[in-house]
Task: structure prediction
Amino acid sequence: MATHVLTGTGTTVSTYSPAITGNTATVSLQAKTVFVPPVACADFPLRLLVSNRIQGTFVTSCTGPITSPELTGTLYWSDGTISEYTVINDTAERVEGHMAGHMQGIITSGYYAEATIRCLSLRLAVDVTACLTGSSVPGASGWDVLVVAMP
Result:
């Protein structure tokens, strides 16, 4: 059974390049989640998670699923340490540019190397009518619930 290390909710801003449209395309993602207040770890309460960044590419459209994810991430701790991870599974659905998703990865370096990281995401498109009017979605904001568990 996995040992739970932390669970936290943060606010996220994502940018897409090129902007997401009604046509399926490969999109670059830059996303940053900030945890306010920082999230304490169950095994070491003075270790605080401050933020999370995800970057990479995936294939999507305004109304389609997210496929072919090639994503990596970095956790930033209050003491200046970073933990890097690789996303191994990312499932998400887009509805008129908005996104609900679930990501799973493995931490490869830093605190909790070899731990599993999971993220539940909800993103609201910057322009909520863009996909409905044939325009594009250059970014989104929303919330992430992040969970880290040791094997």
